[in-house]
Amino acid sequence: MKPSRPLYEREPELAAAAKALDALCGGQAVGGLLVFSGEAGIGKTALLGEIQAMAADRCTIWSARGGETVTSVPFHVVRQLLQPALDRFPADETRALFGDWFEIAAPALGLADPSGPQPDPQGVRDGLDFVVSRLASRLSHRPLLLIVDDAHWADGESLAWLSGFTARLSELPVLVLQAHRPQEFADRDADWAIARTPRSGGTEGHPALTRVALRALTPDATADLVRAGLGDHADDPFCREVWAVTGGNPYEAVELVAKAQDRELAPVEESAGLLRELGASARGSGLVARLERLGTNANRFAWAAAVLGTEISQELAATLAGMSSAEAADCTARLRDARIVSGFDPLEFVHPLIASAVYRSIPPATRTAMHGRAAWAITQAGLGAAAASRHLLEVHPDDDQELVAQLREAARQHLAVGAPEAARRCLERAMDEPPRPGDRAALLYELGCATLLSSPATTVQHLRAALDTPGLDGALRIDATFRLASALSHNNQLKDAALSLAAEAARTAPGPGLMRLQAAHFLWEGMQAAEDDGPGRSARLARNADHLRGRDNAERALLTLRAFDAMLRGENAQLVVDFCERALVDGRPARGLGWTDSEWGFELPAMVGITYAFTDQLDRAEALFGEAVRAFEISGWSGAHLAFAHTLLGLVHRRRGRLAEAEGFLREGLRLADRAGSGLPVHWDATCLLVDTLLARGRTAEARLVADRYDFGPPYPSAMVLPDAPCVRGRLLLAEGRTEEAVAELESAGAALEPRGRFNGVWAPWAGDLARALADTDPVRSAQLATRARVHAERFGTDTAIGEALRCLALFVPAEEATLLLAESVRHLETSSSAYEHALARFEYGIAIRSEREVARAEKLATACGAEGLATRAQQVRASIRSSE
Asked: Which interval of the chain is the signal sequence (predicted)?
């Protein structure tokens, strides 16, 4: 295809683009990612423009461009991409396009005011994915081309969205073209997968990526460019000097040719000596000198435009420059004639190199003052504190309390649209102002809250500073302590979390605040994988909670913790369920204790549901966890929170024996967790449950792959894992035939759990598995372990616990007694809804009585559960029974 305007030595780049466009616009509508990189002025923008012209009749095209002075403006690039497309729809149709994501993602695009709880940034990104996917599907007759120029200056929020979105391009008829300067991208250390994705072929989940590095023009191509501008009579020495002066940089070569035309310079060897002086005027100090020659007004107006950055409002630039609309129009005309700006309203600089040179030419004191005036003008125009904040960030600290208030308000607005990093920058700048001594502690608290989702370690630092600073009193101090403990727990510092709560509780007067601190203290003490006095803590918790009726949320929180602790200890299950009932209101979490309520956190409703899951109340557990998924999705909490909700649903299905469904939920939980980070608490829970589920399905090799991928093994985290991690790892080692290692792991699990009084054999099945592992080598000890496990199971009293204990004990008694125990085990497990354990018990019972009918029933149950390994074993046993009859 012939270029619409001269592009020199860009045939490989255009061929790559043509190939990508053909794949996009062909019958399969294959999306992709095409990345161009190169130094400033190398021709990236011109190349993208040419590709856009190539695609104009075949695609719907959205484009955006980063800007050096607007990298701190959240969602700036995303808004450029999407707003023009969405502006075509009436308000009601726009809302319909977003569906349930409207309240979450529309505020980030400036289409709605924020409402509801603070959104998770991942939720906002998912909402943007949904909207773009919906728009792409509505444009099915014309595939979508997204163009992002100067990506090295894109804001962090847009980069984060593009990182996730580009991984989905193979699913959508969307091609993304991106151009950046590699060194400046690397200097920003932007967390964007496009910059780091492997070369063509990609990795699982990523589309094939094509990278093209643009190179400088050769002397021959530079000569063609010169003759295209100055005429064929331009001689070789003159053209060679243009190449030497510009280094083959296309932008500089074009500008130099334009300057030669302006000076009416003859393109011959005798004029070549003047080219270096002309080249200097096209960049840096030479450009500044050329700008100054246009006059004071034009120079001041250009400064104002450079401070404003991109999509420059002529009226706002006039206000900032202190001139009338007529003067601004005149300055615009002169700057356009000088090829410094383009457009009228809004204006843009002709090239980023020009914008950078003009901005850096402003004397520092003047530039700072202009940013302050720009913030004032934006506020006066009613655009809000968030819009003004990028300018406020550039103002020097000057003990200005109004500026502190503006930055705090801007931070609140950034948080409300899912931009915590932008909020953090505002609050850190407010700290530098500095705030009044009486406001400092509250500002540190706000700063800690802003970083809670993105950096638990930073949150810990700020909240500790807030608590150590005078002025943080009452409910705010209690909330800061509660959030500090939560951040410490997420940073794998559960002991520190408990200690910080205990210290604050000691100085807090009786009342709801103290009860909140005490509940949180019990929570993080109990969630530790190891503690000094587990029984003592359990006794204190019982004294504090057993008499409570659940009259307020503090009482309900303590009852929740009591129920969870009693479940782990294997206390009477009916008593445990009664605690859960008192902790709820009409069977649901009370207002203020819900999944997205920030005062208490999601851990409490999760603990109620987990307790139900391990007391055979699976319908109640499933209802609670289904509500969690809905609550997190509605609120846009689609990072670690949603990953945990899917993991909890996986737990319910595992307990029911719906192994295939459990595996699906757990793999989705891991996928969501992987997007949120690595080594998170939810990774441990989901991995542990998935390994256990795969073992139940008879897929030991897959379980090992999952365990290795997520480093499932010692050292274990400081928080307990759902279910007990060493027990599940011991079960994996047994399945692999690594009996000695399994025995050591299971003995270690028992040694950690028994001193804490945790005897729930469904949560932590170490005793039964250890008994089976030692059956041949130490049958006496095995029988003792199985007998004690039965005692604990009967104390707990659930059908699953009793049925499993009886099934294990049957291994160590005479055959006639074993048959009776297995029959009783079947009866219990048939009632329990634990279909997989029921299948195991019926299988072993069928073997004991040599009944093909019973084994066939076990096979049918195993097949329904998705336990392929057990079903295969049942088939083999049936065949053996038939052949022996």
From this structure: none
